Every structure is written in C-alpha cells, then in structure tokens.
C-alpha cells in the first residue's frame, strides 16, 4: 500500500533520513518506534509530502506520489501536537475540513460522539487545552474513513479514558482491514494493536519485522521487552 | 414716445438756432444712401454720427480722421481680409461702438490692429467684438481714451504670429473696463502708460501674459480675472502701481506666475486672490510694496521672494493649502512678514490674543533644497523629508533665520 | 475545492489585532479629518498613515500570522490540497482581511471627506500597499524558519522601504545634482512601492507645484494615462513578484 524507496533527507548538515526502505501492506498495523530524533516524524511527513525527500520516492497504492496531492484524501493523519487557527471554534474547524473534502459523503462521526465534541463545538480553538486539541485531531483523522491512518504520538496529552477510546477505535478500524502507522514512545499501549514493528535509529531503519517474528526471536510477550532485547 | 418727441424737438431747435454746429446722422447699409462706410466718412463732418446697418463690409483700411460717432446696428462686420488694419483712428473724440471687427492683417513690420488709435484723445471704443486680429485694440499716444465692454478673441498658436489684445503705448489717463480678452500674446499690454485704470476685465488663455506692464507708473488695476495664461501677469520696471481685488487663477508652468514683479516700487497689492498657480507672486528687486489682505490658496509656492527685495510689508494675508508658502534664494531678509495667517502654523495661543505665541518660519528646508536642486521634488512628502523639515524648524541652519512671522495669526483673516 | 481562503478570512477578521488595527485607523482618520480645519491637512496626515503605518502593520502582522499558522499549514498539507492552493488561500485571506480593515478604517472616511480623484487615489494606493506588504511578509516568512528572524527581517524590510531607500535616493540626488537624472529617478522610484504610491498621490495633491520644470518631467510621466497605467502595473507587479517568489519557495519547503 505504501512503499518508500530509498528515501534520504538532509536538514542543513544533519542527515535525518538515510536510504529508508519500508513497506506497509493493506491491513497492517505498524508501530513506528525509535528514540527521539531518530527520524520518525520526518518519515511520516515525507509520506504526506510535508517534507520533500532529497532522493528516493514514495509509492502509494502503486503510484509515485511526487507532485501528487489527491492521494492524501485516502490518508487520515493525526499530527503530534496541532495548533489550529485560534479564532475558529471546533465546529468551524470540522466543517472546514468537510468543506475541503466536499465529495466525501459518508462521514465517520463515532469519535466525535464518544468525545462529546458536539457539546463544545462553539469553543474557540485558542482556548482549548493540548489534550482537547488532540481529541479534535483524532476525530479529524477518522472522520473521512481513510484507507490508511497515520497517527503521530496519538495518545500524548490524552487522559487515560480518552486514550482508551482512541485505542478501541484504532482496533475497530484495524478489524475493518484498514492499514495503520502509529508512532509512539509508549510501547505498552501498542501491544494489543500492532502487527508489525519498524524500528528507527539515527535516520535509518534498523529493522521491519512482524510481531510474530519478534515473538519467536525474543521469546517475549511484551513489546517493550522484545525491543530492549533486540536492541541490546 | 414722449422722450422721442422731446428729443426731436430739442434736435430741431438746436439745428434751428445753431446752424454752425449742425450735426447730421448718416446711414450706411445695403439700401441706404451710402453702401460703404468709407464713403460716409468722406461726406461726414466732425461731430456727425454714422449709423451702420447689419451686414459685412470689406472696406480695406478705414481711416477715421474726423471726430465722428460711428455706431453699428446689429453688429455689422468690418472684415480686414487678413491684409489690412481695419480701423485707424487719427482724430480725437471718436466713438466706435457695436462692430464686429475681424481678420486684421498680420505683419511683422507694422503692428496692424483691429482698431488703432493714433495720437488722439477722448476716443471711446465700446461694445465691439474683435476676432482673429493681430493686435486687437492698439493705442499709441492716446489720452483719456475709454475701451469698454469689448470682446477680443484670437486663436493664436505661436507668440510670433500673435499680437496683444489691448496694446497701449506712451499713453495716459486710459480707462480699460469690462473687456474679455482671450487667445492673444499678451491680454493687456502697457508700456509707458500712466494714470490709467484697468478694471473688471477678464483675460484668459493668452499665450504669454494676461497683463503685461512695462515702465508704466501710477496705474491701478482692480477686480480683473486672469486665468490660464501662459505666464500669468508681469509687472516690471514700474512704480506706484496698485493692484486691488484681482483674481489670479491656474497659471501653470515653470516660468508661470500669478504675478511676476520685477523692479517695482511703492505699490499696494491688496485683496487679491491667488489660486492654483505654480507660483502666486514672484518678486525680484521689489521695494516698498505693501501686501495685505491677499489670499494665497492651493499654489505650488505662495510667494517666491528673492533676496533683492526690501522694505516690503506683508501682513494680514491668508496662506492656505499651498505646497510651499514662501521660498527665497538667500539668507538676507529685509522684509517684514509679521501678522499673517499660515495654515501650516500649528502652535498655541495661551493668552488668547489670537496671535500665536511663538514665531512661524514660513520657509521650509525642503523648499530651500528644491531651490538648489529641483529634482529633489520627487522626494517631497516622504518621511525623510518631513523629518528634515521638522529638525530644521527646531534648529534653523539652511533656512534664513530672520525670515519669520513674529505674530502669526491663529485664525484666517476675514475678507 | 479550494475554499480554504474563506475560512482563513473568517479567522483573521476575528483576530483582535486586526480589529484593533481597524479601530485605530478609524479613530485616526476620523479625528484627523474632523479636527483639521481644511481637509487637505487631514489628507496629508492620511498620506503619512498610508505610507508608514499601513506597510508596517501589514508586514509585521502577516509575518506573525504566517508563523502562528505553521501547524495549521501542516494540517492543511495533510489534507488532499495542493500547496499552491494553500498558499494562495492564505495570501488571499490575509489580503482580503487587511484590505477590508484598511477600507473600513480609513478608506470610507477618506472617500466621505474627500470625494475626489485624490481621495480615490489615496484609497487605491493604500489598498495596493496593503497587498504589496502582505506579499513581502509572506516572502520574509517563507525564507526564514525562525520566527524572531522572520519578524526581524520584515522590520528591516520596512525600514528599508520607508526610510533607508529614500535616504539613499536623496543622497544620490545631491551627489549627481549637476546631471539630468530626472528620467533615471522615475525608474528608481519604481523600485520602491512606497515611493511610487507617494508620487502618484503627490501628482494629485500638489499639482500646482509640480508644474515647474522638473515637476513637468515627472508630470509628463506620472500625470499621463500611460504613466499612471505603468505605475499601477508596477505596483501590481510589486504584489505578484514577491508572492510568486514566496510561492515557488513554499512549494519546495519542508515543514
């Protein structure tokens, strides 16, 4: 579904991505993990073309995305921390997003309901806490029933309850056959969701393995244990 | 009817009792006794009247050498065919009234005119229309002549091909009133003319000056309007010239002024309006002239006063909306600028005596710079030039320190 | 599809700074016209507001807005939108709201107190300067990643166009006072939109003074239909060129 072919990116004199080559098959739920500054966010941004790679290309559903933009309709992206236009209220942000994708008819408003966002539609974005903004981001990511979900640190800043709601939603979508890429530090919450792990360090992919393979290699049940074992 | 009868009786009586002073009226026209005016003049005697009926007369050069009263009825046309001087008046006490005089000859050797007065006195030129003349009305060695209610219109394109509307030379005691002059070289031209009055004339769209004074003393001009002339009005080398209540409007151009005053002394300039001229008044070598109650509005420069001027008193004038109120070319100031209203003055009047408490310096730094380097005009009204002006107002360095109004008025002078 | 600009406008119009700017302009223009006894003095003050305040506010506000919108732009980029469309929408949004602020705050008042060609010229020049300095702010914002640097850059740009450029021109005028450089000056004035706007207004404001010799050369250019057309084309180019540069840069920019 998504294949990155030999992507490299340099910011100034810092090489952030070195020859990244990953594959994301339909139905896969990939955990993108690695220490801070390992290039996870840059990789995600390359897929969305927010960062334009120096070399290499991204193939999305069989097509090179260079210079394309329509493919993003099939991606639900939830950024790390999002700021929205301060003077817009929640309702306006959501209706703006709907306005952008006018031709998209069947909307998934499940999260909006679960987070009771409609009750605070009139609140201005500038007045919201970080967690509230995360919720809005999550709702937007799922709203258009995308084929693939890319979630960058989705649970950071969310309270446990909201975090659980989000997790359940991810599982539900996974069951429907959607692909998911989640980047996270909190490995414990990934256990039950993921099928594959991509581990990045210093702008390189150390490995991309399925959870099954990892289990066999390390003889561990917990993801965090597996990783620490394999890194060591 | 009664007055008509009385007039007839009186006329009969006079002819009866004073046969020697018998005055006749001769008629000229298609079906009259005379078909040409020249013929009628030939037969008439001094004191007679000639009535000219409507029509077009080609009389070549008509010479009036008797004291006649020649009156046109229904604006008869005297046509000079572009070759002749139409009317030459060589006798005194002649009246010319109600003619349309057109197409005088053009000559570079002789000053051909529509009507020319040669060495005569008490000549009256009234209610005529002069079109396409080289010179319109020309007076030489005239005394006590009246030129009134004439319309003098030419279509001059070049100065060389065009004469003056009313040209007076070596004359005195003239009255020039209510004339309209348009399209000549100079609207009204005075050279060596004294003790004359120019009143209520309109002079506009002339190629050079609306009014041009040279070596003419003790003259007064009142309530005239000078608009859109090539170079405005010039008064030069004269003294005791008074100018009251005239309007100078839209005289635009580099060498164009409301009034150009050069080598003038002892006059009064009062109650005039200078509006939208490049320069309201340009003064050079002017002395002892009093200027008061004039209004300068929307001019490029209100006054351009050269350092050669002295003993001028300039007071109770209004300076409104001029780009520059006053500019000068030197630092020497021998004139008095006290007691005017300047709209650029923005100080205070704590004792409420309607006089500003600190003096006003009407010369801005930028106008001094502009005087030296005209191209800087392109920087006018920029922030940096405003900044320079403000600094200069606090610490005068380039602008003449002495040129200031000690008692600037807080409110405009009511006129 | 590309209807984001109306959302951007809706956002900026409610921005407190824009509201404040509108209010200040309104207060300034009303007081300037009602306190002065002649409208021409009011016009002079308005001229200074248009030439100094408008560019400054547009530059600083737009730069800050662009930086504050970084995350918003990221969000939009994750949507099926062209980069072109996003940048255009932001630009149109900023232009419309700042232009509207100027028009409501100053334009209407000018047209009421000075319903003449001069008044119209002031309003048009004010609007064009709003657009130009918004475009320049976009370029400044896209060129620098750091917010402080970006704001610094836009202040320097303002200082340059509003003051330093004129200082240099004045210096040149004095240095080459003996040469006929009037035509060259016309060209130079095209290089600074503030100067160009000022001269266009000057042509209407100080028409009598400009009929003099040097004035006549400027008048022959700036006073004719052709000259006015060239000047306005130049001003529009001043909107388009910085914007197009910023757009080119934005298309390749990493966020």
TrEMBL record, chain A:
Record flagged with keyword ATP-binding: yes
GO molecular function: ATP binding; ATP hydrolysis activity
Domain ABC transporter: residue ranges: 2-227
Keyword annotations: ATP-binding, Nucleotide-binding, Transport
PROSITE patterns to which the protein is assigned, alphabetical: ABC_TRANSPORTER_2
Organism superkingdom: Bacteria
UniProt cross-references to InterPro entries, sorted A to Z: AAA+_ATPase, ABC_transporter-like_ATP-bd, ABC_Transporter_VariousFunc, P-loop_NTPase
Keyword Nuclease part of the UniProt annotation: no
Record-given protein name: ABC transporter ATP-binding protein
């Amino acid at each position: 579904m998504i294949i990155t072919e030999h992507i490299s990116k340099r910011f100034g004199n810092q090489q952030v991505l070195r020859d990244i080559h990953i594959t994301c098959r339909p139905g896969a739920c990939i955990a993108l993990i690695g220490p801070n500054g390992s290039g996870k966010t840059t990789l995600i941004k390359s897929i969305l073309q927010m960062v334009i790679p120096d070399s290499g290309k991204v193939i999305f559903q069989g097509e090179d995305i260079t210079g394309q933009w329509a493919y993003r309709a099939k991606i639900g992206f939830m950024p790390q921390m999002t700021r929205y236009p301060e003077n817009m209220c929640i309702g306006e942000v959501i209706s703006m997003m709907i306005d952008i994708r006018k031709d998209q008819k069947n909307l998934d408003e499940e999260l909006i309901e679960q987070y009771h966002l409609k009750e605070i539609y009139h609140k201005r974005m500038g007045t919201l806490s970080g967690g509230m903004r995360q919720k809005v981001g999550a709702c937007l990511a799922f709203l258009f029933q995308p084929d693939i979900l890319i979630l960058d640190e989705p649970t950071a800043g969310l309270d446990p309850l909201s975090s659980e709601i989000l997790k359940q939603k991810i599982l539900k979508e996974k069951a429907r056959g959607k692909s998911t890429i989640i980047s996270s530090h909190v490995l414990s919450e990934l256990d039950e969701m993921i099928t594959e792990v991509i581990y990045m360090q210093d702008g390189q992919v150390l490995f991309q393995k399925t959870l099954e393979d990892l289990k066999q290699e390390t003889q561990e049940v917990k993801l965090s244990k597996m990783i620490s074992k394999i890194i060591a | 009817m009664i007055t008509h009868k009385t007039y007839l009786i009186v006329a009969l009586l006079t002819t009866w009792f004073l046969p020697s002073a018998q005055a006749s009226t001769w008629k000229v026209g298609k079906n009259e006794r005379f078909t040409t005016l020249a013929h009628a003049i030939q037969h008439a005697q001094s004191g007679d009247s000639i009535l000219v009926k409507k029509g077009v007369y080609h009389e070549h050069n008509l010479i009036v050498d008797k004291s006649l009263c020649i009156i046109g009825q229904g604006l008869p046309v005297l046509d000079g065919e572009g070759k002749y001087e139409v009317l030459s008046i060589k006798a005194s006490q002649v009246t010319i009234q109600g003619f349309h005089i057109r197409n005088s000859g053009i000559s570079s050797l002789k000053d051909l005119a529509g009507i020319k007065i040669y060495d005569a006195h008490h000549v009256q030129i009234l209610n005529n229309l002069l079109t396409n003349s080289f010179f319109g009305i020309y007076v030489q060695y005239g005394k006590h002549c009246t030129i009134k209610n004439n319309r003098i219109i030419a279509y001059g394109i070049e100065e060389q091909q065009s004469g003056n509307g009313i040209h007076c030379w070596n004359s005195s005691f003239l009255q020039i009133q209510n004339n309209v002059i348009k399209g000549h070289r100079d609207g009204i031209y005075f050279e060596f003319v004294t003790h004359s009055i120019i009143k209520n004339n309109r002079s506009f769209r002339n190629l050079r000056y609306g009014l041009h004074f040279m070596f003419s003393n003790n003259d007064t001009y009142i309530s005239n309007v000078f608009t859109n002339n090539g170079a405005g009005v010039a008064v030069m080398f004269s003294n005791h010239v008074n100018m009251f209540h005239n309007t100078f409007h839209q005289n635009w151009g580099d060498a164009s002024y409301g009034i150009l005053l050069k080598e003038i002394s002892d006059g009064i300039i009062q109650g005039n309006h200078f509006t939208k001229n490049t320069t309201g008044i340009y003064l050079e070598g002017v002395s002892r002239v009093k200027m008061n109650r004039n209004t300068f509005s929307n001019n490029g420069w209100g006054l351009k006063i050269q350092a050669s001027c002295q003993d001028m008193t300039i007071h109770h004038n209004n300076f409104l909306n001029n780009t520059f109120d006053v500019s000068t070319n030197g630092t020497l100031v021998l004139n008095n600028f006290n007691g005017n209203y300047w709209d650029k003055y923005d100080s205070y009047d704590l004792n409420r005596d309607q006089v500003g408490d600190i003096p006003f310096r009407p010369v801005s730094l930028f106008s001094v710079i502009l005087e030296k380097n005209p191209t800087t005009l392109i920087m006018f009204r920029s922030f940096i030039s405003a900044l320079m002006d403000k600094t200069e107002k606090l610490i005068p360095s380039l602008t003449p320190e002495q040129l200031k109004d000690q008692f600037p008025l807080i409110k405009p002078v009511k006129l | 599809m590309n209807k984001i600009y109306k959302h951007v406008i809706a956002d900026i119009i409610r921005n407190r700074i824009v509201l404040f700017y509108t209010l200040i302009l309104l207060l300034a223009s009303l007081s300037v016209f009602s306190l002065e006894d002649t409208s021409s003095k009011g016009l002079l003050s308005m001229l200074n507001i248009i030439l100094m305040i408008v560019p400054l506010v547009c530059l600083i506000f737009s730069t800050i807005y662009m930086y504050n919108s970084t995350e918003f732009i990221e969000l939009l980029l994750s949507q099926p939108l062209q980069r072109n469309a996003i940048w255009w929408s932001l630009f149109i949004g900023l232009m419309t709201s700042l232009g509207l602020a100027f028009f409501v705050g100053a334009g209407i008042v000018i047209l009421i107190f000075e319903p003449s060609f001069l008044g119209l010229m002031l309003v048009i020049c004010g609007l064009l300067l709003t657009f130009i300095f918004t475009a320049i702010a976009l370029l400044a914002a896209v060129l620098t990643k750091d917010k402080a640097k970006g704001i610094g850059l836009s202040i320097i740009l303002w200082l340059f166009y509003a003051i330093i450029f004129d200082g240099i021109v004045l210096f040149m005028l004095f240095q080459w006072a003996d040469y006929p450089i009037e035509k060259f000056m016309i060209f130079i004035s095209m290089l600074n939109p503030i100067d160009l706007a000022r001269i266009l207004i000057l042509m209407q404001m100080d028409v009598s003074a400009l009929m003099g010799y040097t004035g006549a050369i400027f008048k022959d250019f700036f006073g004719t239909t052709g000259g006015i057309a060239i000047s306005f084309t130049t001003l529009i180019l001043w909107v388009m060129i910085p914007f197009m540069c910023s757009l080119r840069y934005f298309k390749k920019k990493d966020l």
